[in-house]
Each structure stands twice: as structure tokens, then as C-alpha cells.
Amino acid sequence: MTTDVARQAGPVALAVAQGGLEVRQFLRSREQVMFTLAFPAIMILVFGSIFKGTIGEGVKFTQYFVTGMIATGLMTAGFQALAIQIPMERDRGVLKRFLGTPMPKWVYFAGKVQMVGVIALLETVILLTVASLLFDLHLPGTPEKWLTFLWVSLLGITACTLCGVAFSSLARTGRSAPAVVTPVALVLQFISGVFFVFTSLPAWMQNVASLFPLKWMCQGLRAVFLPASFGAREPGGSFDLPMVALVLGLWCVLALALCLTTFRWTTKRDG
């Protein structure tokens, strides 16, 4: 976007244009598309083909596993993608050049938010389609469950997006960003009940996972896709949706505060 266009366009038009640019850049990167969109679907295919039994009360493992993969997809689109992408752009001087334009700083973040929203929507649709067609996933049957699915997803993706922006300041270089971010994302998946039934994990893992958003995203989505009676198998004896909302909301506030206080537009060598 040229400087003249930036001066003539309104802030909303600038934000929409920036969002379109971010989405196009994402779709042009085959590696990003494959990892972000295809990998969770591949994991459902693999795990769904291997584990065909039930985990109790007639609930198939796939029905349980898909809730974790949707939550993981949201975390990947928000936290992992931004925490890797932003340091790379900072290293290439993209952020520094952005500061030299008359565009408001928030336009940059608005573009990222739109990109994350598109990716999260595409990924969720892909996962639900694959699981429904190949593994007989039972979709939510009531408007109340779809509403729960909506607010858990929105709170979760908001928290993950803000965490991704905040975490982007930890990587010293763009090249080191994947090495810094990927292990964190993988550990959270293993301890948050994505690949295994959460209550089968050691108590200390459950306690650590409870400090982070992914565990609560998984728990909220289990309330959507699993029978109400299955809530008794949760650590607290219920799905406890008010606590899910509270923790995810607190993470949104905390991550926003970290973004405002730690985000860097330039590298240390730029001053």
C-alpha cells in the first residue's frame, strides 16, 4: 500500500486492506498453509484410524479427540502463527518500514486479527468436515451448544492471538522464533488433554495445564461435543463453563497488558 493511498483512505478501509494483504500472503506460503490448515486434519485422520474404541458412556475417542484438535487449531492460528511470523517480519524490517508510513499502528494489528480469524474459520470447518464425514462426529444438536461453541472459540482465539503478539517479543531473531515457540505449543498440547483424556494425565500436569488457555478451551469445547453426563469426568466434576469464561477472559486481559508493555517494532540492533 502506497503512502498516497494511505493518506486518502479512511482508517477502516486501511484495516480491511491490510487484512486482505495478510490473508493473501498467508495463502501464498505453502508451508504455512500446510502446517496450519492441513496438519490438524492429518492428525485427526491418523488418530481416528488408530484409536477406534470408546472412552466410556458410548463416546468414541474421535469425538473426544476432535475437541482438542479444534482448540489446537485455534491456538496454532493465533498464538503459534503470530509468535513466529511477527519476529520474522521484525527481522526483515517490515515493522520498521510500517512505522515510516502515515498509517496508524493499530492497522497492522487489525490486519493480523483478520488473518487469524480467516485461518481459524477455515481450519475449524475443515476439521469438522473431516471428522463428520470419515469418523461420524456428532455435531452439536442444540442452539445452546452452538452458542457455547461460538463464545468459547471467540474467547479462545482472542486470548491466543494476544498471547502470540506478546510472545513475539521473546524471540531474538526471526530465525530463532520457531525454535522458541514450537516446543511451548507442543508441551501445552500434551498436558492440556488434546492427545489423551485429560483426567488420565498425572495430577501435576493437570495443575500446570490449568494455568494456560488451551486446557480451558478444550474443556469448553468438550461441553459442546460430549454428553452432559460426561462432565462428571472432568477434574471439578462438571464442565464448569463459567470458570472457562473467567479464565479465558483473564488471559485476554493479561495478554493485552503484555502486548502494550512489551511489543517491539524494531530489533535491538536497530535501536
TrEMBL record:
InterPro entries from the UniProt entry: ABC2_TM, ABC2_TM_bact-type, ABC_2_transport, Nod_factor_ABC_transporter
Q: Which PROSITE patterns match?
A: ABC_TM2 (PS51012)
Task: Read off the lineage from the record.
Answer: Bacteria, Bacillati, Actinomycetota, Actinomycetes, Micromonosporales
Identify the PANTHER family for this entry: NODULATION PROTEIN J
Q: Report the family membership.
A: Belongs to the ABC-2 integral membrane protein family.
Q: Is Transmembrane helix tagged as a keyword?
A: yes
Instruction: Provide the transmembrane region boundaries.
Output: 33-51, 63-86, 106-134, 146-167, 179-205, 243-263
Q: Where in the cell is it found?
A: Cell membrane; Membrane
Topology within the bilayer: Multi-pass membrane protein
Ranges for the ABC transmembrane type-2 domain?
31-266
Q: What's this protein's name?
A: Transport permease protein
Sorted UniProt keywords: Antibiotic resistance, Cell membrane, Membrane, Transmembrane, Transmembrane helix, Transport
